[in-house]
Structures are given as C-alpha cells and as structure tokens.
Backbone:
C-alpha cells in the first residue's frame, strides 16, 4: 500500500486549467473563486449532498472497485463490467470529490459528511495505488486478463483515455489539498507512457494513439502542475499523430484528416472535443498559432453547422457521431451529456486563449440547457442522451440511451463527468488580463483578479440569474489605479442598462457586436457598485432553413434558457399535433411551486385536425389544396401551452416532450 505525503495546499487554489507562467493567452483564469448563492449554488449543493456521496456505493455495485481489487490481487472472481474503461469512472469521481473537498466553508457544510467523503477518497486512492504495476502501467481490464494485452488494441482499449482521467483526478487532488499520493501514481503511469510511445525515430516501442482522446489535455495539465516539459511534448506528439491512419483512418476516432488541416468537426463527438481541448491547451503553452487557428476554425464550424439550440452536439446514435452539417434531428438527437461537458471544456480554453466573448456565450447556453438536462433535479438520476423531442406513444427500450432518467448506466461515463464539472464550476466564471477582471458567467459569489502589475482585485456578484436579469457587482478590494471591469453581454441579449453607483453608464450602441464585452474602466474604490440589467423577454427563435428537421417551427427562449413543452402539462391529447399560434402573445410566469422553482412561459396554440384519410397517410397536394383547411388539417381544439425550462424536463411523469413547435 502506498503511503501518502502531504504538503500545504497553495494559498491560491487553481482550478482544472492552470496556465503555465509562459502561456501566451489573452486571459488567465482567476484563483479562489467562490459561488455563494443562486441557481448554480443550488445545483452544486445537490451534487455535494446527494450525487458525490452516492458515488462509492454506485461504483461498488457496478463493479468498478471490484475490478481494481482484481488488478491489485485483493479479490477473486471475474471482471465485472463490459468495457475496458471502467477505471475512468472511478477517476472522474475522485476528481469530483477532490474539487468538492476544496470548497470554502459556507455555513451549510456537514463536517461528518465531509469526513466520510475524505475517508472514501483516501481508501480509493490507496486501492488505485495498489493496483498499479511496478512499471507504472495501470488498467484493470487488461491486468485482469481481458483483451490481448497492453497497447495491442489502441482503437478500443482506452488505456490512455483512462490514464488521462487518472492524471486529471491526481492534479485536482494535489491542487485542492496538497496531497501528492495520487499524483505520484499518475506520474508513474505518465512516465511509463512517455517511455513507451513515440515516433519511429525515437527508439520507443509504440508509435500510436488512443482511439479516445483524453490523455492529451491531461498531459498538458500535468506539465503545468509539475513543470516537466516532456509531458507537454508527449501531448503534442499524440495530437499531431491523429489523422495519419494510425487507427485505420476512420473519422470516428479523428484519424481521417490531421487536425491542423481539418475543416469541420467529425466522428465521435466527445473524442473530437477532448482532442480540440488539448489543441487549445498546446497552443496556449507553446504559442503554436497554426494549432490555435485550427482549433478556432473547427469551433466555428461546429457552432455554425452542427450545434443544437441547447448547445448539445451529436446527431447520430450510431457511433455517437456529429453527423453532417445541418443534420440535427429532434427525436433522434444524441447530444450526449459528456459531449456537452467536452464542449464547455474546449470553449473555456478557447475563451482564455483568445479573450473572445463568443466562447462564453456557448458555455452559458450549453451549461443551462444541453449539460444540465443530463442530471435530475434530485441529483439521483441521469440522462446519457438528450433528445429535443419525445413523440407521443414513444416505446422506450431502456438502456443507456433511454429517454427516461436512469439511476446508473452500463457505460456510466456521464454521471461522474457531471459531478466533476459542477464541483469545479466556479473556475469557469472569471478571468484576468492586463487590464483587469472579466466576468464570463453570472453566478453569485466572490471573484478575484489582478491588474497588469499584479495588484489584487476582489469583487462580489449578486444575482437571481437566469430568472431575473439584474447582476450587481460590488467592488470589495481595489488598488488605487485605473483598471477595467469587463462583463459579457450575452449573444441573445438585445437591450440592457448599466449603472455605476446609481449613475447610468452605457447604452447598447456602445458595445461592439463583434466583441461582446462591456468594459468599464476607472479608479475603483471598495464599495463601488455596478448594476447590469439584462432584458429578459420571451423570444421565439428559428433555425437556419438548412436544418430540415425544424423547418416551419419555432422554439421558445427566455434569457439563456431554452424551453420545451411536456405532455404532463397538456392533458387531453398528445404533443405531435400541437401548433403554436404565433399571433398570440407569450408571457412569463413565476412558478416557485414547480420543478424546484422556475419561470414558465405561457402561450396559445391548437391541435391540428387529423387528415381524414383511410389506411394511407399521404395525399395528393392538389387534393389537399382543393379541400377545406378547416375540415382537413386546419385548426382543431385550442390548447393553452405551458413551456418549462428544457433542463427540468423528465423530472415528473414519462411522456411526450418537444422543443421545436410547428407554427402552421
């Protein structure tokens, strides 16, 4: 059993991304952020009190911990689980628990629960250390006799993928607590990988890449944590070996075209986005402009042609694939929860690299919609896939791709991934540059920054966002020199007001639409208050007409939230025939009693009369045009529509759901 050694945690705790001292980025993430209230505080409290504490029991029942005991020689019996990446769920949970244990006291913490969590973490770290081979290799699937042996099947083996999640968990543990026990395990595995993989002229035995990118961005973070340049170089080697046929030249695993030459994202969505996150990391640390430009080009192509309204990505159930440009079906949308998380991680790295607000816009949209829908309101059930429609009479066959929330999955990659993102969410909110502090997202809390000369800045944020548009920023600490407070104006926002100490400061015309940042520069004093009021009207949005699946439809939005209608709110009929009457006004209604407290949107519509046909559901267009619309497919019974935030769907009764509503 490995003994842990502890060093005092650094006074300033960084998050999942800590840029190197020589990183060439427009912004740097701030340290020691604290989320103290509001919407995301409540969601994080749920994972802290419910989801994360349940992790060890679920990992035990699913066999993950048993498999590590097999590898450690501490258990008998067969390997439990169907996949060679069972270990990765353990590592993601360890990362989530580590970030959770690093949270600042807030008066609501349960000391006994935290002690229990810390004990579970230490026991599992000890188990992981015991399972590691003397040469540093670690993967319970292959160590238990499954498969053909280490690195023989790189396309499906997921050995480096698991190593990546181990490294990220170890870095989180070290940053959060100063404890290096897991970091030493991760470094031994990374050293083993470094001694094994390289170009043909390196003298190393394997020239290859993992079928599932993940180790690349983790190796960059290990370089940042340790200062060992060889980890950064190894990450660069892996990224540049994709697209050269090492895995058969398949788009599925990003091996068809080298990333530097690619024009659009393709293949497995999570794999592509983890690879792009690594590209952004490498561009930041090495100044590789070609790699940074490729990442920006592919991000833009993804957003413009392959991203759902919710921020979700992945059009195909088959191979969990992006699909073609503008191919975005509703009821067959895959939109894996892990893909939403990968999108957020990639966008955050691009936001730091470039300083552009558009990346924060996508993070916000994805967080509130495509990501958060993957977790139930009670924190106990999950969605692997996130469709935008469930049809009347849908037959759900269960399994991981069910449209019904599930306690755990056979392939349980998503739940611990949600936990680790939410447990570290405060680190995706603010950043500094040479001019001052940038607020990328609006979460009540305290955020620190610094001026170009390293002078400290501290502000507090108070908001009821996304239900209300008022964001109040109060300066708590400021140097006696001018600095700039920059606030992102969301892409969806058309009107806002801004005041400083009660005096109107700016108008929308003064914000560069291509920039997206509202900047206020002055000599700030402790106690100064800035109030940004974002207008939150109910909006109807349309898709690009090339998105065939939703042509002739609209969706409802309010602020950063996408809305949907559910069968449970519309008794007396299904949703497939519902049409929204866009001539009637929409209204917002506060419902503190519903779904944990939401703002609903009310509207008017009707159910189409079915076509009076026999056994064949199609008719000649000329016959339809000659008929009486009122007696054919015209308006039937009126329906009062109630739309709820998409993130909250599937938390009541099973039934139909839809985001996009026909208008005729």
Residues:
């Amino acid at each position: 059993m490995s003994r842990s050694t502890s060093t005092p945690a650094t006074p300033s705790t960084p998050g999942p991304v800590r840029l190197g001292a020589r990183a060439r980025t427009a912004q740097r993430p701030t340290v020691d952020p604290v989320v103290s209230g509001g919407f995301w505080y409540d969601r994080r409290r749920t994972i802290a009190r419910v989801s994360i504490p349940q992790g060890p029991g679920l990992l035990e029942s699913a066999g993950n911990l048993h498999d590590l005991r097999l590898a450690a020689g501490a258990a008998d019996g067969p390997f439990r689980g169907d996949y060679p990446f069972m270990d990765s769920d353990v590592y993601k949970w360890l990362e989530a628990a580590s970030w959770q244990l690093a949270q600042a006291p807030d008066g609501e913490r349960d000391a006994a629960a935290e002690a229990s969590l810390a004990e579970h973490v230490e026991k599992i770290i000890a188990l992981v250390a015991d399972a590691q081979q003397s040469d540093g290799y670690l993967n319970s699937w292959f160590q238990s006799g499954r498969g053909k042996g280490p690195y023989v099947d790189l396309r499906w083996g997921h050995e480096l993928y698991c190593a990546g999640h181990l490294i990220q968990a170890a870095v989180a543990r070290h940053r959060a607590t100063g404890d290096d026990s897991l970091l030493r395990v991760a470094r031994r595995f990374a050293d083993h990988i470094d001694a094994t993989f390289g170009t043909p002229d390196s003298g190393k035995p394997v020239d290859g890449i993992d079928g599932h990118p993940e180790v690349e961005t983790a190796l960059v973070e290990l370089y940042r944590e340790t200062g060992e340049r060889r980890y950064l170089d190894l990450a660069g080697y892996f990224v540049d070996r994709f697209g050269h046929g090492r895995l058969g030249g398949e788009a599925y695993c990003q091996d068809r075209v080298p990333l530097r030459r690619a024009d659009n994202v393709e293949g497995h969505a999570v794999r592509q986005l983890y690879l792009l996150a690594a590209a952004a990391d490498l561009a930041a640390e090495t100044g590789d402009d070609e790699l940074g430009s490729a990442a920006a080009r592919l991000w833009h192509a993804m957003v413009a042609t392959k991203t759902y309204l919710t921020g979700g990505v992945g059009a195909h159930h088959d191979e969990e694939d992006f699909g073609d440009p503008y191919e975005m079906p509703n009821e067959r949308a895959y939109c894996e929860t892990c893909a939403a998380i990968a999108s957020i991680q990639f966008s955050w790295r691009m936001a730091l690299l470039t300083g552009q607000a558009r990346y924060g816009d996508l993070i916000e949209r994805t967080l509130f919609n495509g990501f958060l829908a993957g977790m139930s309101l009670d924190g106990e059930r999950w969605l692997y896939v996130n469709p935008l429609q469930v049809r009347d009479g849908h037959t759900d066959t269960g399994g991981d791709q069910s449209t019904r929330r599930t306690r755990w999955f056979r392939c349980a990659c998503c739940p611990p991934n949600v936990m680790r993102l939410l447990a570290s969410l405060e680190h995706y909110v603010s950043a500094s540059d040479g001019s001052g502090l940038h607020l990328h997202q609006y979460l009540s809390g305290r955020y620190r920054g610094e001026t170009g000369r390293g002078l400290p800045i501290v502000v507090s944020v108070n908001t009821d966002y996304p239900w209300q548009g008022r964001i109040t920023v109060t300066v708590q600490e400021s140097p006696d020199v001018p600095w700039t407070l920059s606030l992102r104006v969301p892409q969806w926002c058309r009107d806002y007001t801004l005041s400083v100490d009660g005096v109107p400061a700016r108008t929308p015309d003064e914000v560069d639409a291509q920039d997206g940042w509202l900047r206020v520069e002055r000599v700030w004093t402790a106690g100064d208050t800035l109030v940004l009021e974002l207008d939150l009207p109910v909006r109807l949005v349309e898709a690009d007409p090339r998105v065939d699946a939703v042509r002739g439809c609209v969706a409802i939005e309010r602020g950063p939230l996408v809305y949907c209608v559910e069968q449970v709110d519309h008794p007396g009929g299904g949703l497939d025939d519902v049409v929204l009457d866009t001539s009637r006004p929409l209204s917002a209604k506060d419902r503190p009693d519903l779904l944990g407290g939401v703002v609903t949107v009310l509207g008017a519509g009707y159910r189409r009369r079915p076509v009076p046909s026999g056994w064949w559901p199609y008719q000649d267009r000329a016959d339809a045009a000659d008929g009486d619309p009122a007696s054919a497919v015209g308006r039937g019974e009126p329906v009062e529509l109630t739309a709820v935030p998409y993130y909250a769907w599937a938390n009541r009764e099973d039934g139909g759901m839809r985001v996009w509503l026909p208008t005729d």
